[in-house]
Amino acid sequence: MSDPSVYSCCELGAAREAYAASVSTPLSPALAALDARTAAVLRQAHMVSGALAAATLRLLVKVSASVRALEIGTYTGFSAIAIAEALPEGGTITTVDSFVDEIEAKPIFRDAVASLPERTARKIVPVEADADAYLAELAGRVKSGTVQPFDFVFLDADKMRQLAQFELMVESGIVRAGGLVVVDNTLWYSRVVRGEGDATTRAVDGFNKAVAADERAEVVQLPMRDGLTVIRVVGAA
Q: Distance between CA atoms of 31 and 48, rounded to whole angstroms?
């Protein structure tokens, strides 16, 4: 299992996360197996979102009645599969990754999807592409009416680019008014709390403050694991 102490930074934090996971809806067998394989094989296994985030994503998808989902940042497919498990029949999740950061994640993702029941696997639409290029193309297609907006977005990729990506999603209508955008790692190893000055920490802190002040958004940051921010897109300001 991926190690929560990487994010919680102390024994108490890891114990609290383990307890919370133990009294929450557990991982499906497919997600548990994928979590274990990722931890055993990859260098950056802590990038897996974790059991609490998976439970939260599934619940948000269900209570929002989302049908069309988009993910930026596939990695080994953990969160994509969690979302797919929660989508109704006929729902889809388009998951986008270039796999340049850790190419070894790609076959693990492929194998994980292949091992799923067909009813879940058919909901997952993988796209191997640069996220910014794909979103720019998608924005044009949404504006032209050839692609429908998404109900639910999970943003878990380049922290330096996520504010620009969020802005594009809202301004172009990639995510519909009333839709949800969920963003991972918004506490960034607690460095935003400590006010550390490296570029990524400043970018994450800037994102947090920008969306909190954005009149087009209703926002709550959940202090689980490495921070999970839930944004409801209200619409154009």
A: 10
